[in-house]
Write a structure and sequence with these properties.
- The complex is a heterodimer of chains A (252) and B (386).
- Chain A is an alpha/beta fold.
- In chain A, 38% of the residues lie in helices and 24% in strands.
- Chain A is built from ten helices and ten strands.
- In chain A, the strands form two sheets. A six-stranded mixed beta sheet of chain A has the order 6-7-8-3-9-10, sandwiched between helices. A four-stranded antiparallel beta sheet of chain A has the order 2-1-4-5, with helices on one face.
- In chain A, strand 1 and strand 2 form a beta hairpin.
- In chain A, helix 3 packs across helix 4, helix 3 runs parallel beside helix 5 and helix 5 runs parallel beside helix 6.
- By secondary structure, chain B is mostly helical.
- Chain B has two domains: 239 residues, no CATH class; 134 residues, abc type-2 transporter like fold (3-Layer(aba) Sandwich).
- Helices cover 64% and strands 5% of the residues of chain B.
- Chain B is built from 15 helices and four strands.
- A four-stranded mixed beta sheet of chain B has the order 2-1-3-4, with helices on both faces.
- Chain B starts with a helix and ends with a helix.
Chain lengths: 252, 386
Amino acid sequence: MSSTITEHAIKIENLTKRFEEVTAVDRLSLEIGWGELFGLLGPNGAGKSTVINILSTLLEPSEGVAAVADHDVVFDADAVREMIGVCPQEPAFYEHLTGRENIELFGDLHDVPRDVLKERVENMLEKIGMVEDADRRAGQYSGGMIRRVSTVMALINDPRVALLDEPTVAMDPVSKRAVWDFIRELKSNGKAIILTTHYMEEAEELCDRVGIIDQGKLIALGTPTELMLQHNAENLEEVFIKLTGKQLREAV
Amino acid sequence: MGLRRVTALTKKNVKMFTRQPAVLFLLLLFPIIVTATFGLAFGGMGEGGVTNFDVGLLNLDTATTDAQWAGNFEGNLTELDGITVLHYEANETGQAELLQGNLDAFIVIPEGFGDSCTSYWNSPFNGSSWTNTTVELYVDSGSMIASSAVPPLVQQIILTTMFGSEATTLDLPVDMGSPSMVEASTFSQWDFMAPGIFAFASIFMIMIVAQSLTMERDGGLLKRLGTTPLKSHEFMLSQVIAYMVIAVIQVLLVFTTSYAIGYRPATDVSGLAFAFAILLAFSLVNVGFGLIAATISKSAEIASGVSFIFIMPQMFLGTFMPLGGGAEIVGQFMPSNYVTNALTTIFLRGAPVSTLSIWIDLALVFAIGMVVLLVGIVLFRRYGTR
């Protein structure tokens, strides 16, 4: 893993992604610093997941560039994969493996030293309240438990950049709180985090800055407080309504 | 090459196999069941033991002065090893027993049989003076063995009845040089089938490869793995290694099951080692076809069906099914055919491992396996992961 200190954790310039006739991301430009928790807000289909997929090297942009710690996501994809941790929107996991085995597998894939991995797995399982259930097959878990394990699978390599695609969607309040605490701790350790969500209270609670995107375009960027002041709104939900003329939750 | 990543994924795959009852059944239990059932069903068939035929006899030649001829026929028939004669008073009763499968054959000695025999001996060289009659023979058409074995036996009885027991030991100008070199076959039907069954047992690996890969793809796991430092060649290598492990276990199970039910191939340890090698090479073919099936299938359910495109031809045209005509030509394109050929040569013909033809078979299976595997990997990487 590279230990070079770069100015920006993530730098995106004029990023565009088209799927045939549909433009999912339209000339998006962003800079995210180290230790910053950046919220990418918008309804389903706004282009949030496409941005995450490009940053996680799964998709190539149609135009523009994206870099993680100065490593281009297309031309230096291997280096990018070394330093990211990705929690996908749909929690992909092996249902016939236990929660612990799923997490350990991703630790092995990231070549986390074995002794470190063992200690880290125990530590993380405790933080998300899964110690008791860690040795049950993941196929027997509830939706909330799966999402908690999925988050740990994404972060087991102690990534410098965490890409969390709606990690708390459909999660029960207890699980949600556990994941929030987890994310806060990551941020305090100097990691850069992109969190996509359509829960405005989650963004207000966690994010240093937020970017609101709609139909692939960045329509607002700033801290939650700045955006609320700027648009004379009581919360980010109201900001979104004022900017787009539609309710965020209804658009979901 | 990340050895740790390959090892971790291989272990993961093996764990996944062992924890899914349906997969375990297809990969391990199915080969055992196929081997055991075919072995038990065909193990006793045609192995050179004495087969007994129940033959019904109706003698209609009782009201003649030459009744001893029919008596001789009946006596000769009764003396024959493996024949149990059952007497009937009416044609209908015997025919009914034959239809119900209670008899292997039914013979009717016609009225005038004795007169026919006597007319021959009265004038052996004047055929126009003979009184002709016909011994009616009915065999159980549901029994392949009775259909082929009983008529020559009855022919022999007629000759013995007419000419005496010396009739079948005539002095001939041509003799067989070393009768001891020609041994009656002691092979059972299972011995002929076993080489094909060994190849057949691992063919269903195609379906498991296709299903597991499409399930990983559909569950978003392949995408998720794509965000880690895992390289695609490491992923593919882990798949191949995991299935080779399964193939080794399959071969061991099939051999052990065969041995347990009494199968003793005509080979030694080197022959068994060769069989092991060619079956492992064959598993490369199956993994490759599995990858191709996964590439063209949109879901795990479709993958099951698509797998049969590759399973059926190999099964019917390259394992234990007898081939002839066009099927034999098509069979030359089936990798399983070369596996069966090689195993037949060492297990049945008792050829040593130094025999050139089996090494050619191994080389062909290995070459086809590598080509199919590479094509499968390229196709799956390009089109199958989406």
